[in-house]
Structure formats: structure tokens, C-alpha cells
Specification:
Protein name: Glucokinase
Distance between the termini: 10 Å
CATH architecture of the largest domain: 2-Layer Sandwich
Strand order of the largest sheet: 3-2-1-4-8
Number of helices: 9
Family: Belongs to the ROK (NagC/XylR) family.
Helix content: 25-40%
Number of domains: 2
InterPro entries: ATPase_NBD, ROK, ROK_cs
Number of strands: 13
Shape: globular
Organism: Candidatus Nomurabacteria bacterium RIFCSPLOWO2_01_FULL_33_24
CATH superfamily of the largest domain: ATPase, nucleotide binding domain
């Protein structure tokens, strides 16, 4: 029987119908900015891919913090959801089994079963935010429920008065090295919010400010990766997310900086899968 996989990010949400591990149909829309529109759009996308198919269940990858067993989304910084039981809301509208997991951990599951297939490795997702998936001795590390929220590691201390529901510090990994961080820097220095790929193209053409943004971002990314290597000693680190569009030009800068910070020579690659978040979410439904 078929199943539905959902990958929710701060910029896009993707919903796909799977038969075993084969994606049959996928739809993608921008992530709405309000809770009401978010739920409405998500339900519409589910019905669009489900059509009249009978399904075994729905696997959902979504950023945390969250209580994934209960399906309660607590306060992800890039989504319009605060302390809502998304599982209960969806099950009222779609009568089927629903299992939640962290979106970056879903990517780690995809890499575990279909990608790098290593016993000890890390996934770092670089998109609107920064997320982490940790595989230790062939097991997904969940800790007390929210292990892998590496985007909230503090890489630089900056005095900050925390607002309601806010979990990011200005010096956090996510606010220094994500795709959104680069867009904000580009808007400030270049007058427009460029993507990682656009910054790469501009830097290659000799734009000094674009080069500066990439140098700063890849330095912070290398610092974060170096810290994670010392903690987890992974065989390999897989990078995923929208920043992948910047390709080897971006990754080579990270690697060269990492060599000055860390002597372990841990292999770092971009994921070779097109939709690892969806594929990983599909494995939640057995």
C-alpha cells in the first residue's frame, strides 16, 4: 500500500506519494506565514497527492523543537507554529496513521538506508535554518527528543535580550551560516537578498562584497563543523538543503577553512539525493 511523505521547511513544504521507496508524485509550495494558512495549505497538498489512493500512513519531517511522539510543534524559529498539536489537527481531517520526526533527522535516515550507509555520520541541513541529524553506531540519535538542534549552538557570543518564543541567539550557528543568513547579509551589503547560488555566481564575477559574505559564512560553517567533529568523530559529514545549489565552489571554501581548524580530515560531501527529506520521511511508515 502507498504512503505519503512530507518535508516541511522554513521556505518550502513538499508532499509526496510513495510506493515502497519509489516517489510517484510530488507537489511543492512556499511555506505559509500564518498558522491558519499553514494548516490549510498542508491539508490541501496532502489531498492533492493522495487523490483516491488508500495509504498506510503519513510520515512528516518538520523542524523542532517539538514533541515528535505526540506531534506537538513547540516553537520552530522559521515556522508560524507555537505549541500546537499538529498531529491531532491533521488526524481530524485525514483519518490515517501519522508519524512525526525532525526534518534533518529524516535526511539522516535517508542517508542511512539509501545514501552513504555508514554506521557513524552526521547530516547538516543548510537552508532557511541549520539542522542536524546524527547517526551513532547505526542508530538515529534523538536524545531526550530533540537531539540534533545544532543550529542553536552558539558560535559567537553577542549580548541579546530574548523575545517571547525566540530560541535563536544572534551568534548562533543558524544565524551565522544558513541560507537565510546569507540572504540577509546580501540585502544589507548588496541591496538585495541573494541566494547562495546567486552569491557564488556574483563572487566568481569578482564582486568583493559577495566574496566577503561567502568567506564569512563558510568560516562560521567550518567552525561549527569542527566542533561537531570533535564531539561525534563521524566517518563522514553529509551537507544538504538549498545551499547545495552553491556547489563545490562553496564546499571547497568550507573544506579549506576546516583544514586550518581541525586535523582529523573527516570527509565532507553534498548529499547525492534529490529529495532526501521526503525519502527519509517515507521510511517512518513501515
Amino acid at each position: 500500500m502507498d504512503k505519503i511523505a512530507i518535508d516541511i521547511g522554513g521556505t518550502f513544504m513538499r508532499v509526496a506519494l510513495f510506493h515502497n521507496e519509489q516517489m510517484i508524485k510530488m507537489v511543492k509550495e512556499r511555506t505559509p506565514k500564518t498558522k491558519r494558512e499553514f494548516i490549510k495549505e498542508l491539508v490541501c497538498l496532502i489531498h492533492e497527492v493522495k487523490d483516491s489512493q488508500k495509504i498506510k500512513g503519513i510520515g512528516i519531517g518538520i523542524p523542532g523543537p517539538a514533541d515528535y511522539k505526540k506531534g506537538v510543534i513547540i516553537n520552530p524559529p522559521n515556522l508560524p507554529l507555537r505549541n500546537i498539536n499538529l498531529k491531532k489537527i491533521l488526524q481530524k481531517k485525514i483519518k490515517t496513521k501519522i508519524i512525526f520526526e525532525n526534518d534533518a533527522r529524516c535526511v539522516a535516515l535517508a542517508e542511512k538506508y539509501f545514501g552513504v550507509k555508514r554506521a557513524n555520520f552526521l547530516v547538516i541541513t543548510l537552508g532557511t535554518g541549520v539542522g542536524g541529524g546524527i547517526i551513532v553506531n547505526n542508530e538515529l540519535c534523538t536524545g531526550n527528543g530533540n537531539a540534533g538542534e545544532i543550529g542553536h549552538m552558539i558560535l559567537q557570543y553577542l549580548p541579546h535580550k530574548r523575545k517571547n518564543h525566540e530560541i535563536n541567539n544572534p551568534g548562533s550557528f543558524e544565524l551565522l551560516a544558513s541560507g537565510e543568513a546569507m540572504r540577509k547579509k546580501a540585502k544589507m551589503l548588496l541591496g538585495q537578498p541573494l541566494t547562495a547560488k546567486q552569491l557564488k555566481d556574483s563572487a566568481r564575477r569578482g564582486n568583493k562584497k559577495a566574496q566577503q559574505i561567502l568567506e564569512e559564512t563558510t568560516l562560521y560553517l567550518a567552525i561549527g563543523i569542527s566542533n561537531l567533529i570533535h564531539i561525534f568523530n563521524p566517518e563522514i559529514i553529509v551537507l544538504s538543503g538549498g545551499v547545495k545549489e552553491a556547489g563545490d565552489y562553496f564546499l571547497d571554501k568550507v573544506k579549506s577553512k576546516l583544514e586550518t581548524l581541525n586535523s582529523t580530515k573527516t570527509k565532507i560531501i553534498w548529499t547525492r539525493m534529490d529529495e532526501p527529506g521526503l525519502l527519509g520521511a517515507s521510511t517512518l511508515i513501515k
